[in-house]
Structure formats: structure tokens, C-alpha cells
Amino acid sequence: MRKLKYWGVAVVIGLLIGVAFWWATSEVKDRKDPLNQSDAFVYSDNGILYWFELTSEKGKVKGTLHQQKIIEEVGKVPFMEEKKSPLTGETTEKGYEFKVNNGEKIITFDAWFSKGNLVVQKQENKDNKLYKAVDQEELDKYVKALQQELQMAIYHSEEKEKNRLRKFFSDLDSVYGYLYSAENESFQLFVKIDEALLQGELTGSLLMMTDTGSKTNPYEETRYALNGITDGLMVRFFTTVDGKETKLEGNFHEGATRFDLSFWTTDQKLSFQAVTEEEFKQNYEEFKKKAQLF
Questions:
Q1: How far apart are the first and last CA of the chain?
Q2: Structure pTM?
Q3: Is 9 a residue whose pLDDT tops 60?
């Protein structure tokens, strides 16, 4: 009986040793996975920083794809856009397959090691990027460098904005006016900006030419005084229609060459194109003549 007891204890001890050995060897194997040898894998290019934080265990991969990107939009102060996307994956014959959820869709990547660094390739377009293996201290340096790049972009943005505005208002001063013609040729609009200040104030007029369809009075034109503001991107005019203040809103496109604008007779914005004095006079006479003929 005592021998059986000893044998039972020996078996239990043997099982424990076996489990401990299996656990130890599996842990060693996981630690040997190159994904577990670095704190992160970094890719940096022209105001964009990506890095993977990854762990691998028993052939399964999990982690996070980080993105920091400097956004510079015309008329706005540069800012940093930051995103974190969860990642899952597994080992493959080639290396790894990652699936990243960016909040809109799942993006699948193939990845493999090359000289200690991680090559990552989108399955959809086969675009390779080399992610450098780094420790936490090196990663912090990349993040700090991008922050410094952002500060430089902010520092220079004010001068860039001043130059943009100077060019826009210079171009605007050289434009004779802006013309819109309705597709059904029932009316034609002409906006003339008489004064445009660098601070954004505008004054001018809107000429509305209408084909009334009446035999006795086939053509009619009405002029409206305009006051407005612009920053070279948005434009806003105020005028008086039938005794009521009316606001027209839109945006410039392609600098000062054209803009779209809301109008009180339609729900859609109308597209006005810059024209020379000669072009305006030609369109004006043709429209007037056509209205009177029919």
C-alpha cells in the first residue's frame, strides 16, 4: 500500500515536471519569435509615422497599429491626426498575416522579417514598407521628431497663409467679373467685385438678366448691391431682395478663377466662372438679343 502511495506521488511529480517543461519550452519558443524581440516596428515618411506594437504567442499575433500624421490644410493651422487600430494575426509559411481594423474596414497585410526588420505588405495592392525594429527609447525619438516637425509646420503656416491671401486677392483684383448662365437659358447672372480688401471685405454688384418669355417685355435686368467677406476659400455675400436681406454662400475653387454660390431661386449652388470684359459683353449682347427674338 505504501509502495502504491509512493508510485502515485511519483506519477504526480512526473506530470508536474512534464507540464513545467512543456510550459518552459513553449515560453522559450514564443520568446524566440522575432515579433517579441522588439518593443515596436516603425515606419516614418514625410510627416507620417506608423508603428506596430506586436506580441506573438503559440502562432497567434495581437497588437496595435499606431498612426500619427501631420495634416496641413489650406487656411487652417497644421495639426496632428492620431489613430490606433487593433490588430490580430497568425504565423504563416512566409511569416505572418495581420488583420487591422481601422474602424471602417478590415485591412489584411502579409509580413516577414528581413535583416531583423519587418517588411509589411498590403494584400490588396502589394505595396511594401520596411518597418524598423526599435526599443521604447528609439520609438520615443521618432514620436518626438514628428512633434518637432509639426511645430515647424505651425511656425511656417502663418507666413504661407499670408502669401496665399496676398496672391488670391491680387488675382481677384485682376478678374473683371464672374458669369453664370442657366442651362435652360432663362436667366444669366453676372457678379462684379468692385473692391476686395486683404482683410476679406468685399463690395460689388450682381446683375440678373432674365428672359421673361413675354412678348411685350421679353428681356428684364435687375441689379443688386453686394457686400460680403471671403478668405479665398469660402465666400459670403449679402444683398436685399424684395425688401429682405438675403445671404448667398459658396466657395472659391482653383484660386480666384471660379466659385459656386447659393441663389434665392434654387436649392442648388450655381457655378460662376471668371470672364474678361470682352467675354462678358459678348454674352450679355447674345443673351439680350436671343430673349428679344423669341
A1: 122
A2: 0.70
A3: no
